[in-house]
Structures are given as C-alpha cells and as structure tokens.
Amino acid sequence: MKLICIGRNYTEHIKELENEKPTDPVVFLKPDTSILLKKQPFFIPDFSEDVHHEVELLVKINKVGKHIAKKFAHKYYDEIGLGIDFTARDLQSKLKAKGLPWEKAKAFDGAAVIGSWLPKSNFECVDNINFSLQKNEVVVQKGNTSLMLYKVDEIIEYVSKYFTLKIGDIIFTGTPAGVGKVIANDRLTGFIEDKQMFSITVK
Fold first, then answer.
1. For a designed S-S bond to 6, which of 156, 171, 174, 201 qualifies (C-beta 3.0 to 4.6 A apart)?
2. Could you tell me which of 142, 165, 135, 141 has the C-alpha nearest to residue 153?
3. Residue ranges of domains in the chain
C-alpha cells in the first residue's frame, strides 16, 4: 500500500505558511513505514525541534484503477477516515529553501496517523464533511471538505494519471489552517462531525 498526500489544498493553510497557491494538486508520498502503529504514542524525532500536526480527511481506495475519470472516481472508494500528516517543519523549511524533496520532513517513521474508518454511505455528500482536531481538549484545526481547492474525486482523477491506485491505498486530502507545534504530553484527538476517529499522545 502507499499513502498519497495532497499539499496546499486549503486557501487559509496556504496563507498561514506563506506558500503560493498551486495551479495543480501538490502531490507527495509516504511509505507504509510512516504509519503510526495502533495504540502507540507519537515520538517526536530527534532530528526536529518543530514538528507540526496537520489533520486531514482520508479516503481508502477499494479497487485498482489508472487514468480514472472524475465522473467515475466515486466508485473507487467507500470509506472515509481521518488522520494526521506530521511534518518536521524546521527540516521541511531547510529542504524547500534548497529546492530538495520533502520526504525526510514528511515520511519519517510514525509521521502518518490513520484513525478509524466510516462508510461513505454515512455522508450525504463527501464534499461537505466537517472535521476537526483537538489538542489537549482545545480545538486547534477545523475544516470542511467544501473548502478544498481540489475535491476528492478531482484528486483521484489527477493522481491516477501518474500512479496506479491499488486496493488499500490511502489518500490524505490536505490540511486546513491551524497547524501547529506539538510537544511532549500533548493529547491529539480527531473528529469527523461529532464522532471521535483517533486519540494519540505525544512523547
């Protein structure tokens, strides 16, 4: 399986990091070794002093596809989830300044939280789903998929031009504004609407 991640997909998040608005989806990958094991804490890596949380809505691919047209994209997933794309922001900034890839800052061990899954049929429209992240019981990120620059089906159409999608692949659809630093003993809890999808401790 592979984790396909979309960057800069919410306007307010683009502004908070002073990035340029993309003309196409920004795509990067995480290996399966980046997945945080269930019931395990997230350990801040020793190569970063500024790791940020980025909560994201997830979709899980349910059949093999290549060059998927947007109008058929909805047939390639039937589960919606929530996760965190942890980012070593200080390392990422150094890499970006040199024009280098982001993987060391985005794809390190434990950098991808994958919570519970809900049937897509639970939602009237995947383009209108509320989700949020609490840090120590305070809401720090709130998003709605209606605010994504590139909606779920558009993302599937775009990425399937470059990568064959396989059963079990997971797409991280981008993070809204409010990303921030995590420190030891923080508790991060994610919600889709009012349903808790994950809760992890930072070490």
1. 174
2. 165
3. 3-201
Bridge partner list, 57: 82
Residues whose CB is less than 8 angstroms from the CB of residue 177 and which lie 6 or more positions away in sequence, other chains included? 10, 12, 13, 15, 16, 141
What architecture is domain 3-201? Alpha-Beta Complex (3.90)
- The strand order across the sheet containing 26-30 reads 26-30, 3-7, 170-172, 55-61, 77-85, 112-119
156/96 Cα distance (integer angstroms): 26
Average pLDDT of each block of 10 consecutive residues along the chain (203 residues)? Answer: 93 65 88 95 98 98 98 98 98 95 96 98 97 98 95 97 98 96 98 98 98
Cut 0.90: pTM above it: yes
